[in-house]
UniProtKB/TrEMBL annotation:
Annotated organism of origin: Cryobacterium suzukii
GO terms of molecular function: metal ion binding; peptidase activity
NCBIfam families assigned: PRK07907.1
GO annotation (BP), single: proteolysis
Key words of the record: Hydrolase, Metal-binding, Protease
Record InterPro entries: Cyt/Met_Dipeptidase, Peptidase_M20, Peptidase_M20_dimer
Domain of life, source organism: Bacteria
Stated name of the protein: Dipeptidase
Region (Disordered): 1-22
Domain Peptidase M20 dimerisation as annotated: residue spans: 236-383
Length: 491
């Protein structure tokens, strides 16, 4: 979606009262700019130290590493010396009404300082856990050894989202350097430890720490920019439905030569069933999944090919503008399959096949409604009477940001000054489901979804990286935002 940058607005989203106000704001931003510049080497060094900790939050990985990462982030937060409280907190997985269940989520950092003299409170969110690295041979350097090549810092979590963590730390450092530690802005800091594993304790965490997290503005630093020269505010996020699908046709395996041609095996049934999920052009063919019609910026097929590595001769899928396919239409991906491997293949009719399906749903649709539509489709289209089992269903709501509030105006001004060009409003094909929980718990708060990534960051993929110029401008923009909020009254 195209933005409507407001580059001439005052720092509080209102007309300036006097030339003195503009001069004071200009002086503050000058001091913030100097502080960010001087602090950048330390900021990058701290980021590298975090990247060295393999804080993968998935169940199969060592939770001690996530705990070590939480300790390291907490030490950085305490070092700011501006918060009244800094805690490492674990919430239960499950409804808060039942104590959150007996299993605890991964450790998160929670810090807070109250606002004074009528200033607003801002909640800063990021996450310190990371995706699994994948195969070492797919990386050009060790995934947990931060490595600078050219103008990019490579490493798992270098962009997603330890750079988001450090953007918050660095912008607060700059604010302290510019105006002193006794500022009036209220700040709550929430650095989650399991975003990459589904934020399973997030809802409980919010309910149990509601007052400590309450803010007038919420900054979620976990998204993209348009390119390395243009900032973005994310205004639309797709939701998600993931599930495990098992297809069964036989009580046991049988010889494919003896019975092939008469008995459908599970692989055949699975292939035919999965094919019903797609139209001829590759778009999703599940009745009940909806799209929205919104304008999108220009984005060429050549740009798509360059950013995704689409091979020559392989065509894009879907219909409509390319960005509408990514931002405002559903998409369905088979992300995993359990079946005999090629190396272990035998002449056997497979009795059962299990796949993982990941569906992205367009803003405006209920995730529960979408999950029901997908299940109905799978059951009604099972070939040969195959038995279909669906379990391990996980849902996340899509989100549309209200861009009419004063906080967005403040953010546009900060980004324009920090980057030298106004931001654009973008949608994101990925999902941040917990934003729906933030809206549920804090319905009056204004949500700003920002980020440090760019189209070449390759978050979740081998050779994930952070563009250091983008990082500097993102830190500067957030510092400008905090400076403006610290001067704002009448919110």
């Amino acid at each position: 979606m195209t933005g409507n940058p407001q580059t001439n607005s005052h720092s509080n989203g209102q007309a300036p009262d006097s030339a003195t106000d503009l001069t004071a704001n200009s002086q503050t931003r000058g001091a913030l700019r100097d502080a960010v510049e001087l602090g950048l080497p330390t900021t990058i060094a701290d980021l590298c130290a975090l990247v060295r900790i393999p804080s993968v939050s998935w169940a199969a990985f060592d939770p001690a590493q996530v705990a070590a990462s939480a300790d390291a982030v907490a030490a950085l937060v305490r070092g700011l010396d501006v918060f009244e409280t800094v805690e490492i907190v674990q919430a239960g997985i499950g409804p808060a009404s039942s104590g959150g269940g007996t299993e605890l989520g991964q450790p998160a950092i929670l810090a807070s300082r109250p606002a004074r003299n009528g200033r607003p409170t801002v909640l800063l969110y990021a996450h310190h856990d990371v995706q699994p690295p994948g195969k070492d041979e797919d990386w050009e350097s060790d995934p947990f050894t931060p490595t600078v090549r050219g103008d990019r810092l490579y490493g798992r979590g270098a962009a997603d989202d330890k750079a988001g963590v450090m953007a918050h730390i660095a912008s607060i450092r700059a604010l302290v350097a510019a105006v002193g530690p006794d500022f009036d802005l209220g700040i709550a800091l929430f650095i989650e430890g399991e975003e990459e594993f589904g934020s399973r304790s997030f809802a409980t965490f919010l309910d149990e720490n509601r007052e400590a997290l309450r803010g007038d503005v919420i900054v979620v630093a976990d998204s993209n920019n348009w390119d390395i020269n243009t900032p973005a505010i994310t205004t639309a996020l797709r939701g998600n439905v993931t599930l495990r699908l098992t297809v069964r046709t036989l009580a046991h395996a049988s010889h494919s030569g003896m019975f092939g041609g008469a008995v459908p095996d599970a692989m055949l049934a699975t292939i035919k069933l999965l094919s019903t999920l797609y139209n001829q052009d590759g778009s999703v063919a599940v009745a009940g999944l909806t799209s929205i019609d919104v304008p999108t910026p220009d984005y060429s097929e050549d740009q798509l090919r360059a950013e995704t590595g689409l091979l020559p001769g392989v065509s894009p899928i879907g219909h409509g503008s390319i960005l509408s396919r990514i931002w405002s239409q559903p998409a369905l991906t088979v992300t995993g399959i359990d079946a005999p491997t090629v190396d272990n293949a035998s002449n056997t009719l497979t009795p059962a096949v299990t796949v993982r399906l990941s569906t992205r749903i367009a803003p405006g649709q209920s995730a529960v409604q979408a999950a029901a539509a997908i299940e109905t489709h799978l059951r009604e289209n099972a070939p040969f009477g195959a038995i279909v089992e669906i379990d391990d269903v996980d849902t996340g709501e899509p989100f549309l940001v209200d861009t009419s509030g004063w906080a967005v105006t403040e953010a546009r001004s900060a980004m324009t000054d920090g980057w030298g060009v106004p931001p654009v409003d973008i949608g994101v094909g990925g999902s941040i489901p917990f934003i729906a929980d933030l809206v549920r718990v804090f319905p009056a708060a204004q949500i700003l979804v920002t980020g440090v990534e760019d189209p070449d960051s390759r978050a979740h993929s081998p050779n994930e990286s952070l563009h250091l110029g983008v990082f500097k401008r993102a830190v500067l923009s957030e510092a400008f935002l905090l400076g403006s909020l610290n001067e704002r009254t009448g919110h």
